[in-house]
Amino acid sequence: MKRNILYILCGIFLLIGCQQKEVLSGAGYMSVSGIEVQSQTVAEVASRSTDDIIWTVELWKGGEKLRTLSTEEMQNKIELDAADDYMLKVYSPNYGVEKGWTNDEKGEPVYYTEVPFVVKLGETTGLKVQVPTITFAVSLNLSEVIGDWLQEYDFTVTAGDRTVALDNGDIAYFPYSEGVSFSYQLTLTNSDSETNTLNGDWGKDEGEVINTNTIYTVVYNWDTHSLSLKE
Q1: pTM of the model
Q2: CA distance 99 to 173
Q3: Are residues 96 and 187 in the same domain?
Q4: What share of the chain has pLDDT > 90, as a percent?
C-alpha cells in the first residue's frame, strides 16, 4: 500500500514537472500595449515635452540582446520562444548623455527602465511600460520675496564635480549614482546693499536619501530669511 502511494506521488510530481516544461517550451507571444513616462515626484515639471519621445526598445533574453524592436513591430503581437528570462530595456534618445553634462548645461530628464517578463506556451504576455527618469533635479523658488527688497542674487547647485548656476524657477538635472549628494548656495544683495550668503545640502546626513525621478526645490523663506528644501 505504501509503495503504491509512493508511485502515485512520484507520478503526480512527474506530471507537474512535464506540465511546467510544456508551459515554457514551444512558442508564445508578447505584446506592448503602451510606453509612457512615469510622473516626476512632487513637481510635474519637465524641460521638454514627453509626448514626442522616440523610445528605443531592446529585447533581451538571458542577458543577451536579441534585437531592437521597431515601432511597427510593437503594434502587433511578437512571437517568441516560451521562456522565463526575457527583458525589455526601454530608454529615451538622450540616454547616456547625462554622464557628459558640463557646468554650463542645465541638463534634462533622462529616461530608462528594465522590464523582466515571461512568455508561456500559447499565451500572450501584455506589457504596459512606465519609464522613470534616472536623474534627479534641483530648482530655486524665490516667490516669497516681497517688493523690491531683493536687488540681485546668485544661486548655484553642486553635485559631484559639476556646479550649475540657476535663476528663480530654473531646474538643473543631475545623473543619479549610489551615495550621491548635492549642496547649494544662495547669495543675496538687498536694497540696502547688504549681502548675505546661505548654504545647504542634502544626502550627506543619515536619513537623507536622494531619489531618482524627483525634483528638489530650494525655497527662500521670507519670514526667517533662511532656506528650506522641498521634495
Answers
A1: 0.79
A2: 11
A3: no
A4: 68
Of 131, 157, 174, which closes a domain? 131
**b/e 56-73 (16+ beta carbons within 10 angstroms → b):** ebebbeeeeeeeebeeee
If one counts the domains in the chain, the total is 2
Let me know whether 36 and 105 are in one domain: yes
Q: How far apart are CA 195 and CA 197, in angstroms?
A: 7
Under the banding of pLDDT at 50, 70 and 90, the label for residue 231 is confident
Domain range for 163 is 135-230
Is 153 inside a domain boundary? yes
Q: Which of 91, 51, 94 is nearest to 68 (CA)?
A: 91
Contacts of 25 (CB under 8 A, 6+ apart): 82, 121
13 part of a folded domain: no
The model's pLDDT over 101-131, given as tens digits with 9 standing for 90+, comes to 999 999 999 999 999 999 999 999 999 999 9
Regarding whether 167 and 123 lie in a shared domain, the answer is no
Q: How many CB atoms lie within 10 A of CB 97?
A: 14
**What CATH number does residue 113 fall under?**
2.60.40
Under the banding of pLDDT at 50, 70 and 90, the label for residue 209 is very high
The answer, yes or no, to whether residue 21 has pLDDT greater than 90, is no
